[in-house]
Amino acid sequence: AQKITQTQPGMFVQEKEAVTLDCTYDTSDQSYGLFWYKQPSSGEMIFLIYQGSYDEQNATEGRYSLNFQKARKSANLVISASQLGDSAMYFCAMREPPRDDKIIFGKGTRLHILP
Amino acid sequence: DAGVIQSPRHEVTEMGQEVTLRCKPISGHNSLFWYRQTMMRGLELLIYFNNNVPIDDSGMPEDRFSAKMPNASFSTLKIQPSEPRDSAVYFCASSLVARIEDYGYTFGSGTRLTVV
């Protein structure tokens, strides 16, 4: 069963607009962590932001924020004031400690920022 | 720190040949992960080690794949014999479990493997 679902294979957004990338997850554990990674066309994987299941506040990191809705099991990434350099593939991922230390990735969303 | 170092960056080999991919994790990290990325299957976890011990190899596709971590600073992923369907980008990643919330995994630049 797929644990991480990213329903938007591709998105086109105008520069300077805010972007929301969707992510839903499936777990029966109470303790888990959610990650977002960026993969530009050069191929490297860049860690953006982390949200723990017990964190009461949404994680933020610069222009990135995570809209965490625990009851709905969603962890959407919000990018404010998008820039051309934000064009990339974005992956949502989950880890379920202490049962499991590995991170499982979703299929990704390809984001295109238009000038 | 130089980050996670993978070699080679690109590898082209003929079907049936042995391929060895190498990874040097970040010094002090205690977990190491091997992922494979393809268009069709996305990012798949193949195997991961904690303190040099293999913890979960359920993602290793076949017996043709093997991985070792003889010490804290080196790991290999070997494919023998290689097949065209093994063509993919192979990533190595490392982490310090205690700081994973701050830094996630650190990925290497990947090895692009082409089996012809």
How would you characterize this protein structure?
The complex is a heterodimer of chains A (115) and B (116). Chain A is mainly beta. Helices cover 0% and strands 53% of the residues of chain A. Chain A has no helices and twelve strands. In chain A, a hairpin with a 2-residue loop joins strand 7 (60-61) and strand 8. Chain B is mainly beta and 116 residues long. Chain B is 3% helix and 53% strand. Chain B is built from one helix and eleven strands, in the order E-E-E-E-E-E-E-E-E-H-E-E. Chain B has one helix at residues 100-103; strands at residues 5-7, 10-13, 19-24, 31-38, 42-50, 53-56, 65-71, 74-79, 88-95, 106-107, 111-115. In chain B, the strands form two sheets. In chain B, strands 2, 4, 5, 6, 9, 10 and 11 form a seven-stranded mixed beta sheet that branches. Chain B has a four-stranded antiparallel beta sheet with strand order 1-3-8-7, with no helix packed on it. Chain B is globular and about 40 Å long. The mean pLDDT of chain B is 94. The chains are: A mainly beta (115), B mainly beta (116). The A-B interface holds A 33, 35, 37, 43-45, 47, 50, 52, 91, 95, 100-108 and B 31, 33, 35, 42-43, 45, 48, 50, 55-56, 89, 91, 93, 97, 100-107, 109-110.
Give the overall form of chain A. globular
Helix and strand element order of chain A: EEEEEEEEEEEE
Helix content of chain A: under 10%
- Residue ranges of chain A: pLDDT <50 for 5 or more in a row? none
Largest interface: A-B, 20 and 24 residues
- Structural class designation of chain B: mainly beta
Q: What do the pLDDT scores of chain B average to?
A: 94
C-alpha geometry of chain B: globular
Q: Counting H and I runs of at least 4 residues, what is the number of helices of chain A? A: 0
Number of helical elements of chain B? 1
**Category by helix and strand content of chain A:** mainly beta
- The overall strand count of chain A is 12
Q: β content of chain A, as a range? A: over 45%
Q: Radius of gyration of chain A from the CA trace?
A: 14 Å
Order of helices and strands of chain B: EEEEEEEEEHEE
Distance between the termini of chain A: 38 Å
